[in-house]
Amino acid sequence: MFAIVKISGHQYKVQAGQQIYVSHIEGNAGDKVEFAEVLLVDNDGKLSVGKDVKEKVQAEIIGEKQGDKVIAFKMKRRKGFRKKIGHRKLYTRIKIESIA
Predict the structure, then answer these.
(1) pLDDT of res. 62
(2) Per-residue pLDDT tens digits for 74-95
(3) Which of 15, 27, 70, 85 has its CA 20 to 30 A from that of 60?
């Protein structure tokens, strides 16, 4: 059984017991979260899509991690203007407990 769920504006294919990294979700390690925006569910070959989907996905927050550094470098030639800005996106690791 798997489901396609929308989390923080991104779509993920999830199964029970799977661990995935998603965009940052508020909460501490050990907190339970529920995602109600399920787009598709495959239950042993039987598909439910759109408004027919009644399932919700329950998950547990495991921890957080920073992504790779992304550098934005701006420069104007012959003007002496250089600006270097960088950031690291924060990700949350979650474990899918059930699709019910």
Answers:
(1) 97
(2) 999 999 999 999 999 999 999 9
(3) 70
